[in-house]
Each structure stands twice: as structure tokens, then as C-alpha cells.
Amino acid sequence: MLLLPLLALVALTVLVLYRVLRPSRLPRGPPGLPVLGNVLDIPPKGLFLKLDEWKRTHGDVFTLKAPGQKIVVLASAKSAADVLDKMSAPTSGRPRYIMMNEIMAGNLTIAGISANDRWKRCRRIIHEGFNMRAVDAYAQLQEEESGRLCRYLLQNPGCNLYPVLERTSCGAILRALYDAPSLFVSPKGEEKVHKLAQQMDAFMKAAMPLAYLVEMFPAMRHLPRWLAPFKAYGEDFFKETNAYLEKWYQEGCKSKEEGGKSKGFVVASEETRAQFGVTAQEAAWVSATIYAAATETSAAVVQAFCMAMLLYPEVQKKAKAEIDAVLGSHCPTLSDKASMPYVQAIVKETLRWRPPLSSGVQDVDYGDYTIPKGTIVIGSIWSINHDALTFGDPSVFRPERFLAPDEKTQSRPLPNYHDDDIAYGHGRRLCPGRHFANNMLFLEIAYLLWAFDIVHAKDGKGRDIDMPNLQFVDRGLTCRPADFPCTFKPRQPNLSEILPPIA
């Protein structure tokens, strides 16, 4: 009678000892320190450049260690495709993000939660509003905002570029989501934009690996507020942010066209969310998440495009030849996109050359490795986009890599990958708003090339001001080029008459 329990105990002991004592099958990485692992090796800024440095010394797949946590980095197109795309089911989760997601967001940020039921139903309403066909409804407002950007630059030639690009991207997504007035027409909305920017910044900082000790020691989550200042701050942040987002969502729900037809995503989602079981609170956070994803990243890409035009004037010249042949004197529209393959290739090459997201965070076997459940897996987007084996000359801005030899049709430089959308993530976490973003990027870039010659600003002695080519503004999980001056010279003497009015 005692034999079966004894055998079960022996089997359990063997299993435990095997799991504890067996050699690790994780890939090797920087050696680190006892107990602390690589905590002190992870820089607070420029993590994507450090990951790329480690790739050169430790290979395409390597492991970083911290107390209670292991991080596997995928630094090549093949490894990211094999693990995050082909194994998207087991790798579509998210690390726990105790501070950012649980405490500061109440498990309501779909970008930070695991692939659970809430994530699935919230993704469904995003897909309804931003799939490839649905985004056609936003074409007019995207064209208007792109034209207003050019008019603003014509009227303010010496302005600081990035804030204007950010105003354009913020204005477009605000109109698409909440049917809000354009920020170029009604600057009153900038107070809301500033408030959301503060919230986004706080989330970005909290999402950085090892930003808070509670990520390494989860038991700290249960400390009382008076013993845990981080917890008191996070809970207060959630209460204030939740109230703000729900209020903004309700204001957006009141927006209707004459005749009662919905204009914005918020109104449409309010009418359909019950179909997918999405609560009003979830819908409010979904809308804010879309806003956050669409603003800073789009502005960063257009800023990088302007830098590329200064560094590679031959690309600008070639693009203008295509634009002039297709457009003549009329403004770009989304319907012109199919006729402008080189401009489309510029969009894709900008996303590759200076991706706004430097890393994408997602119990599988990969080759000779075993990645245990609970391991953070990072696709190093910068390293993937700058892989010399794939791109040959990754530091060079060369749109032709996205074109077939006839330069009239698109090509895929990564045949085993999901087209050219590397900058938009991987697998089931591929950005659901990428069609809206790609349309907006095409229109802004086409408008800027059609309206202006983008040239170097001059110093006091008339010399070109050098570009800060590898200097960045690092905001945690996102980055953009450091600010630089440039000049937008109108290509037509009557440009002011041709551009759509701001008002």
C-alpha cells in the first residue's frame, strides 16, 4: 500500500532535481555578476545600441539575466521570424509589467497585457476600425492634415521641425479617433495632447526593463502603500488617468455628423463594443492606446525621412521626378499611392533605417535552445533592420532595396518575413494600426517632396550645418533622431495658392 506513494515521491524528487540541476539550454550572453546578473550592464539610455553591440560579440540570439528574470534577445531577421512569427501562439504574451500594467494601468493597456480574453476582444474592435479597408474612411482627413503641415512650414520656415510633425500626427489621429478639430485649426486641443504626452512618458519609463525593483521582486507588489512609495504613486496615477481617459472617451461619443452618422472610431466602437463584450472602460483605454501608438512614432519617422533627404540628395531628386510625372501641379492624394512605388519604398526604407521602436517585447524550443515559460523575449528591431547579412549596406539609405529590378513594383528584402513591416512588431502582436500609419506616412512624405526642396540649414558663415546622424532622443522603448535644423524651399512660386487652407 505504501509502494505507490513512495514511487510517486521518488519520481517527483527526480523531476525537481532534473529541472533544478540540468544544464541551461538558454543561449549564452554577457557574463554579468553573481545574483545581479546583467542589471548593471543595461544602460538607462540607448539600450538598442547596446543590444546591437552585444549581437556582434554574442551572436544573433543571446540571454541577459537579472534577479528572478531572464531576457532572450533575438537580433536577426531569421531568429525573430522563427520565434515571434512562426511560433506566434506561445510567444504572443507579454512579461508581467507589474508597475506599468498592473499598478499604473489596472491591466487595461492592450499593448502590455498578455494574449488573454480582454486582449482578444479589444483587438477585435481595433481591427474593425483600422483594417486595410476601414482606413479608407480616414483618407480625406489625412490628406488635409498633410497639406496643413506644408502650409504651416511655408508660413513658419524657421520653426523647430519635430513639434510641428508631432502636431500633425497628433491632429490626424485625434480626428480619426474622437472627431476632434485639427490642432492646426483649433490649438485648444494641445492641452489634452500635453496631458496625454505626460501619461505616455510615464508609461514608457515604467516599461523599461528593470525600471522598478518590483519587477525583480514581485512580492513587493503586496506591500502596503505607506511602505511602498512606488505603489502609492502608481495607484494614484491609475485613478487620475482612468478618469481622464473615460471622460475624453465620453466626449468623443457625443461627436456625430449631421444626420447622426458616426465620424470617429470612438463613436463606431461605442456602437459595436457590446458585440465583442468590450466595456466602456476598456474602450476608453483602447482609444488612448491607439493614440499613444500613432503619435510619437509617426512624427519620428517623418523627422528621420527629412534627415535622409539631407544626407542623400540623390534620393530626393529621384523621388521628385516620380512625383512630378504622376502629380504635376495637383496635391498628392491617397489614390496616387499605387502610381508612386519609389515614394512607397522611401517610406519603407525610412522605417528600416531609423525605426521609431528600437525593441519589441513578447516555453518554446528554438534550434539548440529552450526558452522557458516566463522568459522575456525581445526582438531587437534596430539590429534586425541593420543586419549586414540581410541588407548588405544597412547604414545606407537606399529605397531601391524595396523595389524589384524594374523599380516599378515592390519587392521583399526578407522573403521569410512578414513583408517589410518589421518596425510594426511581430506575430500576433503586429501593430493593428499599421495601415493607417502607412497611409499617413505616405501622404506626409509625398506632400513634403511635392511642395518643397528639403535642404541644409546654413550657419552664420553660409556653411551647411552637419547632421547629428547617430544621435538620438531616447524615450525608453521609442527613440527618434536628435533635433536638427533644415530649410524647406517652396518648389512652386504659387504654392500658397495651391495648398489646402488651414482653416
From TrEMBL:
Signal peptide from the UniProt entry: 1-18
Domain of life: Eukaryota
Residues that coordinate or bind heme: C431
Family annotation (Gene3D superfamilies): Cytochrome P450 (1.10.630.10)
Pfam families for this protein: p450 (PF00067)
InterPro entries the record matches: Cyt_P450 (IPR001128), Cyt_P450_E_grp-I (IPR002401), Cyt_P450_sf (IPR036396), Cytochrome_P450_fung (IPR050364)
Known cofactor(s): heme
Pathway noted in the entry: Secondary metabolite biosynthesis
GO MF entries: heme binding; iron ion binding; monooxygenase activity; oxidoreductase activity, acting on paired donors, with incorporation or reduction of molecular oxygen
Keyword Glycoprotein (UniProt): no
Coiled-coil regions, chain positions: none
Keyword Signal: yes
Family: Belongs to the cytochrome P450 family.
Annotated PANTHER family: P450, PUTATIVE (EUROFUNG)-RELATED, P450, PUTATIVE (EUROFUNG)-RELATED-RELATED
Protein name according to UniProt: Cytochrome P450
Organism: Calocera viscosa (strain TUFC12733)
Lineage: Eukaryota, Fungi, Dikarya, Basidiomycota, Agaricomycotina
